[in-house]
Write a structure and sequence with these properties.
Elements: H1 31-44, H2 48-62, H3 68-86, H4 118-123
Helix pairs in contact: 2-3
């Protein structure tokens, strides 16, 4: 019978002196600052439903159900439609969360100028209309 002798390899390593690592102080981040960072992130990250939608579009493109340009066009169209639908108001980023944003003050409607044409006088009931000027 054949016998095999197994022995561990001999490795001779040079002795290295351990150098202590420098201590670097880490900045302290408070709860308020961390909350602000989370609010900023919520504005840029879409809600979970839309992330799932875009992920499904990407998966369909990867598996060849949709061509990549078609999936990209659908995703871009959905994003544009969502922004158009919501206008300038931010959308809550999670279930049960609401974000309140103050709307800018409404501008007063511009005053209509006085009509001086015959067609304009006829629309005003045949009367002449005048505009009073006010000084500021």
């Amino acid at each position: 019978m054949l016998s095999i002798e197994v022995r561990p390899p001999e490795m001779r390593m040079p002795h290295l002196e351990v150098v202590p690592k420098p201590r670097v102080p880490m900045p302290h981040i408070g709860r308020q600052v961390l909350g602000r960072y989370a609010d900023v992130a919520r504005r840029f990250v879409p809600p979970p439903e839309r992330i799932a939608y875009y992920g499904a579009l990407g998966a369909l493109a990867v598996f060849g159900v949709l061509e990549l340009p078609v999936a990209a066009a659908i995703g871009a169209g959905a994003m544009v439609a969502q922004r158009q639908r919501r206008g300038e108001e931010p959308e809550p980023s999670g279930p049960g969360q609401t974000q309140v944003r103050e709307r800018p003050a409404a501008r007063p409607a511009p005053a209509k100028p006085a009509t001086t044409t015959a067609r304009g006088r006829a629309a005003a009931g045949g009367r002449r209309t005048t505009t009073k000027r006010t000084s500021k």
